[in-house]
C-alpha cells in the first residue's frame, strides 16, 4: 500500500504554525514559511528537496531581504538554550553574510557557514536573558549590500527551533501526517524517570452519551494504561434510551433514575473500584430540560441531592455538577450557592469527598468581558476546595499554559482539564490521530486531565485515548509521533491488523491534526472537495474512492467482530463520496428546472 500512503500524504493538506510538544520539547519550532517576509511567496516554497522553505536576498530587495516571526514563552527559561537552523547557502564561492536576531539581540552575524550542496543544521547558543516571558521575536536577515531578486547572494531556511541541547527536528504532524509503525512495542504510557510523579495526578476520560456497556468495556483498558479517573457523561444520566438529546423530555433530573439504570451504574462503580479507577458522578440539571433547577429553591436542591447521595452511598468520592452550555440559569452567585450546598452535604458524610464544577464560562483565559465578571463572582462565593473544569484556550482546539494561568488567577480555583478530544459529538466522523498541541507544562498549573471520547466508535476511540493517557502521565517526554504508533501496537498484535489501523488513522487524523476546531469535521469529505476542485481531477477522485473502498473491505475481513461502528463510518463515507463523484461528473443535471415569471 505504499502508493496509497503516498497518495494520502499528498491530499491531506497541512495547516499553519503550531507550537510543538515533542520529546525534548522546543520552546518554538517553525518551518521557513512560518517566517514572514522572504521570497517564498514569489518563487515558491519547495526548494532543494524540502517543502515549506523560505529564503532571503540582498539588502536592495527590501522585504525579501529578511524574514521574521513572533512566538510566546510561557515561563522563564532555564538552562542552556539554542537556536537551531536547518539552512543552505547559495552557490557562490563566498558565503552569504547573514544575521540571526532574537528580540533584536544578535545571536549570530557573519558568513553563513552553511554548505551550498546540501541542507545542514547549525545550533547557536542563546545568551541568558535574551528570551523573555511573553511575546518574543526572531529575525533572519541577509546582510549583503549588493544583489538582485532571484540571484545570489541568498540564504535558505527549511526549519528552525529554539530548544535545549540535543534537540532533534521531527516531522510536524500538523503539517504532514503519516504514521511509521515502530518495530518494537514499548510500555505505554512512556515510563517516568525514577522518583518522578506523573504529570497530572488524575488522568482519565468521559464518554459522550455512552451506555453502561461502553463504560464497562473501557475500564480495563484505562487501568492497563495508567488512567485512574472515569466520569459519566451527564447526558448518560438523562433518558437517552427513550428521547433524543435536545428533546426537553430527555433531562428529567428531578425524577428518580430507573432501577435498572441504577443497577447498571452501580456495576460500573464496582468495576472502577476493582481496577483502581476513581469514578466521578456527573449531572447537569439545566441543559435540555423543561424544568430548570431554581438555585434558591430548597426543594430543587433536595431533588438534585438525592442522586449524589445515592452515588456517595456506593463509596464514590468524586462528583461533578455541570452548568455548561446552558441558556437558563446563568447566575454565578446562584450556581455557587447550589454547588456549595451539595458539596457541604457530601463533605459532612465523607471528609474526602471532591467536587468539580463545570461553570458556564468554562474556556478561554478568563479576560473576556462577559466571562471575567462571572468568574470573579465564583472566585469570591464558590467554596475554595471546589475544582473547576476548563477546556482550554477555547471550547475545542489548542491548550496553552498561559491561558490556564490567566483563567486560574481570575477564578481563584484549582483546575481540572476537560480536554475536548477526540469527541465527535455524534457527528458521522472520527478523530483518531494523537492528541497534540497541549503545552508540556500544563500539569504545573492543572491537577487533573480528562479526555472526551467519541460517541459510538468506542473501540476505535482507544487509539487516540491511549495517546491522551501517554500525554497526561508523562507530558514532558510526550511525542505524538511515537505515541500513536505505540497505541496501535498496544491494541493489536497481528501485523496485518496493525497496518489496517494505521491506514484508518491516516484517513481520519483528527481535527487537531487538520488545524480546525470542529468536532464534526469529516476529512474524507473535506479531501474529496479539495481533490474535486483541481482541474481534470476525475482520475484522482476515482483513485481516492477506490482506495477508501479497498480499505473498508479489508477492515471488514480482518475485523469481523471488532471496530464495527468505525467500519460503518468508513463505509458510509465511501458511499457518500461515491454519490458526490457521480453527481459532480455527470454531464447533465437531473435537477428539474423551475422557470420563474
Number of domains: 3
Determine the fraction of residues in helical runs and give it as a percent range: 25-40%
Q: Could you give the order of strands across the largest sheet?
A: 11-12-13-14-15-16-17-18
Per the CATH scheme, the topology name of the largest domain is: TIM Barrel
CATH class group of the largest domain: Alpha Beta
* Major sheet description: 8 strands, parallel, barrel
CATH level-4 homologous superfamily of the largest domain: Glycosidases
Care to describe what's here?
The structure is a single chain. The strands form three sheets. The chain has an eight-stranded parallel beta barrel. The chain is an alpha/beta fold and 597 residues long. The protein starts with a helix and ends in a 13-residue tail after the last helix. It has 14 helices and 18 strands.
Topology at a glance:
Blueprint: H1 2-11, E1 28-31, E2 36-37, H2 40-43, E3 54-56, E4 66-73, E5 82-89, E6 97-102, E7 105-111, E8 120-125, E9 134-142, E10 155-163, E11 202-206, H3 212-224, E12 229-231, H4 259-274, E13 278-283, H5 298-313, E14 318-322, H6 332-349, E15 354-358, H7 371-381, E16 387-390, H8 401-411, E17 415-422, E18 448-452, H9 458-473, H10 480-491, H11 495-507, H12 523-532, H13 538-558, H14 564-584
Parallel strand pairs: 11-12, 11-18, 12-13, 13-14, 14-15, 15-16, 16-17, 17-18
Antiparallel strand pairs: 1-10, 2-4, 3-10, 4-9, 5-8, 5-10, 6-7, 6-9
Helix pairs in contact: 3-4, 3-9, 5-6, 6-7, 9-10, 11-13, 12-14, 13-14
Amino acid at each position: 500500500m505504499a502508493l496509497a500512503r503516498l497518495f494520502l500524504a499528498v491530499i491531506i493538506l497541512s495547516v499553519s504554525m503550531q507550537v510543538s510538544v515533542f520529546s525534548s520539547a522546543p520552546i518554538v519550532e517553525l518551518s521557513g514559511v512560518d517566517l514572514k517576509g522572504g521570497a517564498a511567496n514569489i518563487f515558491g516554497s519547495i526548494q532543494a528537496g524540502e517543502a515549506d522553505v523560505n529564503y532571503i536576498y540582498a539588502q536592495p530587495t527590501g522585504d525579501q531581504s529578511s524574514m521574521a516571526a513572533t512566538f510566546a514563552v510561557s515561563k522563564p527559561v532555564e538552562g542552556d538554550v539554542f537556536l537551531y537552523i536547518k539552512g543552505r547557502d547559495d552557490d557562490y564561492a563566498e558565503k552569504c553574510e547573514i544575521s540571526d536576531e532574537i528580540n533584536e539581540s544578535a545571536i549570530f552575524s557573519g558568513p553563513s557557514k552553511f554548505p551550498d550542496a546540501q541542507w545542514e543544521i547549525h545550533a547557536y547558543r542563546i545568551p541568558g536573558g535574551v528570551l523573555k516571558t511573553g511575546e518574543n521575536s526572531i529575525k533572519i536577515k541577509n546582510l549583503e549590500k549588493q544583489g538582485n531578486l532571484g540571484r545570489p547572494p541568498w540564504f535558505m531556511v527549511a526549519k528552525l527551533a529554539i530548544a535545549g541541547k540535543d534537540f532533534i527536528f521531527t516531522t510536524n504532524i500538523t503539517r504532514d501526517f503519516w504514521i511509521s509503525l515502530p518495530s518494537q512495542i514499548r510500555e505505554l504510557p512512556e515510563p517516568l524517570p525514577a522518583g518522578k510523579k506523573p504529570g497530572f495526578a488524575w488522568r482519565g476520560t468521559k464518554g459522550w452519551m455512552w451506555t453502561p456497556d461502553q463504560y464497562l468495556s473501557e475500564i480495563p483498558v484505562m487501568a492497563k494504561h495508567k488512567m485512574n479517573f472515569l466520569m459519566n457523561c451527564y447526558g448518560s444520566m438523562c433518558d437517552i434510551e427513550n428521547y433524543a438529546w435536545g428533546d426537553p423530555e430527555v433531562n428529567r433530573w428531578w425524577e428518580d433514575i430507573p432501577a435498572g439504570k441504577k443497577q447498571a451504574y452501580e456495576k460500573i462503580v464496582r468495576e472502577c473500584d476493582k481496577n483502581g479507577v476513581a469514578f466521578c458522578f456527573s449531572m447537569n440539571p439545566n441543559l435540555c430540560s423543561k424544568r430548570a433547577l431554581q438555585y434558591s429553591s430548597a426543594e430543587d436542591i433536595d431533588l438534585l441531592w438525592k442522586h449524589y447521595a445515592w452515588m456517595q452511598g456506593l463509596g464514590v468520592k468524586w462528583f461533578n455538577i455541570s452548568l455548561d452550555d446552558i441558556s437558563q440559569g446563568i447566575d454565578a452567585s446562584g450556581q455557587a450557592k447550589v454547588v456549595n450546598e451539595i458539596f457541604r452535604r457530601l463533605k459532612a458524610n465523607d471528609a474526602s469527598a471532591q467536587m468539580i464544577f463545570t461553570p458556564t464560562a468554562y474556556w478561554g483565559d478568563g479576560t473576556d468581558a462577559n466571562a471575567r465578571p462571572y468568574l470573579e463572582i465564583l472566585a469570591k462565593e464558590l467554596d475554595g476546595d471546589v475544582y473547576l473544569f476548563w477546556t482550554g484556550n477555547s471550547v475545542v482546539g489548542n491548550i496553552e499554559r498561559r491561558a490556564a494561568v490567566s483563567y486560574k488567577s481570575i477564578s481563584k480555583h484549582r483546575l481540572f482539564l476537560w480536554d475536548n478530544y477526540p469527541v465527535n459529538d455524534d457527528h458521522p466522523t472520527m478523530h483518531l490521530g494523537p492528541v497534540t498541541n497541549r503545552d508540556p507544562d500544563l500539569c504545573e498549573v492543572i491537577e487533573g486531565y480528562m479526555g472526551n471520547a467519541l460517541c459510538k466508535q468506542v473501540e476505535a476511540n482507544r487509539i487516540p485515548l491511549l495517546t491522551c493517557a501517554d500525554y497526561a502521565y508523562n507530558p514532558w517526554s510526550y511525542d505524538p509521533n511515537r505515541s500513536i504508533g505505540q497505541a496501535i501496537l498496544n491494541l493489536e498484535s497481528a501485523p496485518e491488523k496493525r497496518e489496517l489501523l494505521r491506514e484508518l488513522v491516516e484517513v481520519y487524523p483528527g481535527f487537531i491534526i487538520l488545524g480546525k476546531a470542529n468536532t464534526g469535521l469529516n476529512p474524507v469529505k473535506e479531501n474529496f472537495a479539495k481533490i474535486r476542485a483541481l482541474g481534470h481531477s476525475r482520475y484522482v477522485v476515482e483513485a481516492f474512492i477506490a482506495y477508501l473502498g479497498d480499505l473498508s473491505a479489508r477492515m471488514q475481513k480482518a475485523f469481523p467482530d471488532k471496530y464495527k461502528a468505525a467500519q460503518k463510518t468508513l463505509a458510509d463515507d465511501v458511499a457518500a463520496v461515491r454519490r458526490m463523484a457521480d453527481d459532480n461528473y455527470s454531464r447533465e443535471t437531473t435537477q428539474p428546472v423551475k422557470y420563474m415569471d
